[in-house]
Each structure stands twice: as C-alpha cells, then as structure tokens.
TrEMBL record:
Belongs to the glycosyl hydrolase 13 family. Pfam families: Alpha-amy_C_pro (PF09154), Alpha-amylase (PF00128). GO terms for biological process: carbohydrate metabolic process. Keywords: Carbohydrate metabolism, Glycosidase, Hydrolase, Metal-binding. It comes from Amorphotheca resinae ATCC 22711. This is Glycoside hydrolase family 13 protein. InterPro entries: A-amylase_thermo, Alpha-amylase_C_pro, GH, GH13_cat_dom, Glyco_hydro_b. Its cofactor is Ca(2+).
C-alpha cells in the first residue's frame, strides 16, 4: 500500500530550442532567456540548445564547428559572438533555466572541424564517395585546409593546435582546386576508423564533412575529453545531444561519457543523432553503448511521414518497427527537427495536417521521451517561412502531457483511420484523458475512462470539438473528433484547465 502512495513523477518533455533559419542577429540566447519561464510553465523540462561553439562564420549554425573552446568569447571567424550570441548571454540564459528548474542539453559537434586557419601539405588518396573502402587514385600530396592555431583565443583553456596528422580525411585540395573525399595518409596508412567503431553505410561512414577528426590520435582524444569537462564547468548543464554519432568512434564516445561521470558526477542525459531507418542498427548501437544512452527515433519520423502522405493510411501501424516500441526507455520521440527541416522547401517530411496527430502520439502516451521542435512551436524563418504548426495547438498538447497524461494506458486501435486511447490517471494525478484522432472523416470511439469519473462532463482541451461528453455510470464515454484531426478529452473542471490557450508564440516581437 505504501508503494501505491508514492508521488507520481511529472512527465518530462524536452524541446529542440532552435531551427535552422533562426535570424543570425546574435539575439537567440536573449530570446530564449525571455521565453524560459513560459516554456517551463507549459511543461518543457529540458531544452536542447544549438551548438554554441564558434563556427566558420557569424552565420554558421555551429555544425560547421571551428573552435570548441570559444563559446562566443573571442574575436575569431568574423567576430566575438556566435550566430546565437555571446558567451555572457549564453551563461545568463543557462543560469535562468537552472533558476526555474529547466535542464539544458548541449549540442556537441565532435566529428569534424571547419574553417581551418591555414593550409598544410599531406599525403592523401581519393576514395569512392559511395564506398569509402575503395580508393580511386594513387597516393599523392595535397594542400589541405587542416591547420588550426586559433589566433584569437591563443592558448587560453587549451594549448592544443591541430595539424594534418590529427585528421583522417578532408574534402578539398587547394593545389588543383578539386573537391573529393580524401583519406589522409601518414608515414603509414592511417585509414578510416575501424568498421566496428563507425557505421558501415557507404562502406565506412567515418568521413562526413570538413576536416574529419581522427580519434585514434591520442592528442585529439585528450583535447576533446578535456573539453567536455571544461564545458561542464563553464555551464551548468544536464546532458548532451551528440551530433553525427554514426560517423565517429563509439569507443571514444564511451570514454567521453565515462570521463564526465567520473569528474562531474552521474545523472547526465545523453542522446545521439543516429539518423537511420534501420531499427536493427539502432538497437545494436544502443547495446554496444551499454544502454546508458538514448537515440532519436528516426524510424518513427519515417512512419509519420509515410502515413501523412498516404490517403486512408492505417494508423494502427504507426509504431511498427520503431525504437519507441522496441527500446522505449532509450527512445527520444519526435515529429520534426533541424535535420528534416531544410527539405521543407521541396517536400514536407510530414504533411502539416498530420503534425497535431503525430504530436499527440508522442506527447500523450506512456512510452518514449518526447522532444518538440522550436520551428513547430514558434514558426520557421528564412526564405520559405512557416507559421507555428498544429494550428497553434502544440503548447496545449505539451500542457496536457504535463497535467493529465498519467497512469495506465488503454488502446483502442480497432479501426484503420480512427484510433484512440485512454490514460486513467493516478492517485495523485487523477484526471486522466481520452484521445481520439482520425486521418479521414470525423471519428468516434466509445472508451472506458473509469467508474470514478461517472457523471463528469468532459470537453476537448483544444477547443476544436465543441461537444460535451457525460461519463456514464460504468465509466464509459462516447468521444469524437473532427475529420482529419484529433480531440483530447478531459474533465471540464479538471485542475489546470484555466491554463490553456495562454501561450504566446510571438518570440520575435521587438
């Protein structure tokens, strides 16, 4: 009985705190600072922020990383600040998050370096871009952008400089102005990382872009291990999102995580970007990482995309062959992120009508750790702007997760184009919710929410459905949703109902 009375932990939700086309006005840290109290109150507990290290230019999003040890502090690559702002503004924003109880996840870009300070001669060999295990030239000397001495920072924080022998590959030879994938050779052939240490797509996927770091070199390994500890002392963060994990050494990443645990204490959250629709490869990766790691559920995003583009698609298949179904503890579920976003100009990965359905499927169910996307919450800037998605209902879905999506889950996956489920609530979070969604005509489900709710009147928190449902004496209600839409039903007098509809998505106000 004592076990039953333990407080129910609040559901956790994370947010990717940027989109690719955020204006390069160096005010992003300031905008996030102003939004943090509202985000936390709505149910965002942790925020994955963009790579805040100095990029190749003031417009760089950070994936073109130049100097890990420059968080917007030194005059390098066109200025002091990063696209997002200065180090002082970053620290202020992180401190604000800590103050309200929101965790910050850092986006660690550790695979490569960009925008070298000078060229160096080195022996290299061209490889087939579609199979990097096949060489397409004899070894010859190239003039590569692989020299990094960080003149603006000097030796502050780290005295390590980078030379050709710290890299395994590059993509440009200044002598003949040829772009190709070059495997850098030393006195003996360095080669790519071992096939067991990186993904085997394209034969060996060690090389991704720019100057590819060689983690078999002890100076590279030690400098980046030291950076992780250094960063955790500069900023009070709760975890890291690792970019491009299938492209660099798993062995190194395990050392990186262990070093943080040993020096800064346990309790970190780590998630990797392993963007692949092969579930078996992802499961094997988690197994090799010792399960102390999460991955973004790319197969689920592919399922959402397919369902959104297929008329009359069978919604009951939505979780087939997904990470959240097979590895629910290690799955970060998502609908959209910056990796899928740039292609919106050509073809939306997920059709707009389906986004609220998809968000309900990750936010209001038991399994997975959901991550919402800044661009869906606040809209997308750039040449092809988009307004906030879900008809502005995404904050309400996040708040519904925070307040009502608790307890046992009963699925009503009994009709191809209309599915539903019930969350029964818990002893101390008793309200529960009932969700109905349809990708065709108006939907209807008779669902059991519990005899304890008999006589209650339930309404749709989204306001898209104006009906009222009275729960009968057996605990059943007949819940409906509009066509190609959803409804989230909760007791109209449930605690917190007054909080809905108040989120301000106008983050760019002057």
């Amino acid at each position: 009985m004592a076990d039953e009375q333990k407080p129910t932990p609040e559901n956790m939700t994370m947010m990717q705190g940027f989109e690719w086309y955020v204006p390069d006005d160096q005010k992003h840290w300031q905008r996030l600072y102003n939004q943090i109290p509202q985000l936390k109150a709505t149910g965002i507990d942790n925020m994955w922020i963009p790579p805040g290290c100095k990029a190749s230019s003031p417009s760089g999003n950070g994936y073109d990383v130049y100097d890990l040890y420059d968080l917007g502090e030194f005059d390098q690559k066109g200025g002091k600040g990063t696209k997002w702002g200065t180090k002082e503004e970053l620290v202020k924003m992180v401190n604000k998050a800590n103050e309200v109880g929101m965790g910050i996840y850092w986006d660690a870009v550790l695979n490569h370096k960009a925008a070298a300070d000078h060229k160096q001669k080195c022996l290299a060999q061209e490889v087939d871009p579609d199979d990097r295990t096949i060489t397409t030239s004899d070894p010859y000397e190239i003039n590569a952008w692989v020299g990094f001495n960080f003149p603006g920072r000097g030796n502050k924080y780290s005295a390590q400089k980078y030379h050709w022998y710290h890299f395994s590959g590059t993509d440009y030879n200044a002598d003949n102005k040829k772009t190709a994938i070059y495997k850098i050779l030393g006195d003996h052939e360095k080669g790519w990382a071992d096939s067991e240490d990186v993904d085997d797509e394209k034969g060996n996927y060690d090389y991704l872009m720019f100057a590819d770091l060689d983690y078999s070199h002890p100076e590279v390994e030690e400098d980046v291990l030291n950076w992780g500890v250094w960063l955790s002392k500069q900023l009070t963060i709760k975890g890291m999102r690792f970019d491009a994990v299938k492209h660099y050494s798993e062995d190194f990443l395990r050392k990186f995580i262990t070093r943080l645990d040993e020096t800064q204490g346990e309790g970190w959250f780590f998630v990797g970007e392993f963007w692949k629709d092969e579930l078996s490869d992802m499961s094997r990766y988690l197994e090799r990482m010792g399960k102390k790691f999460s991955l973004f559920d790319a197969p689920l995003v592919y399922n959402f995309s397919k369902l959104s583009k297929t008329e009359g698609a069978d919604l009951r298949t939505v979780f087939d062959d997904t990470l959240v179904k097979t590895e629910p503890i290690n799955a970060v579920t998502l609908v959209m992120n910056h990796d899928t976003q740039p292609y919106q100009e050509l073809e939306a990965p997920i059709e707009p009508f389906f986004k609220p359905l998809a968000y309900a499927l990750i936010l209001l169910r038991f399994d997975g750790y959901p991550c919402i996307f800044y661009g869906d919450l606040y809209g997308i800037k750039g040449e092809h702007p988009f307004p906030p998605s879900c008809g502005g209902a995404l904050p309400s879905l996040v708040l519904a997760r925070k307040l009502y999506a608790y307890g046992l889950q009963q699925d009503y996956f009994d009709f191809a184009t209309c599915i539903g489920w019930v969350r029964y609530g818990t002893w101390d979070r008793p309200f529960g919710c009932a969700v109905v969604l349809s990708n065709a005509g108006p939907g209807e489900k008779r669902m059991h929410v519990g005899e304890m709710h008999a006589g209650e009147i339930w309404t749709d928190i989204l306001g898209w459905n104006k009906r009222e449902v009275t729960i009968d004496q057996d605990g059943y209600g007949t819940f409906t949703c509009p066509g190609v839409s959803l409804s989230v039903w909760v007791n109209k007098h449930a605690e917190g109902r007054e909080q809905f509809g108040k989120f301000d998505t106008n983050i760019y106000k002057t």
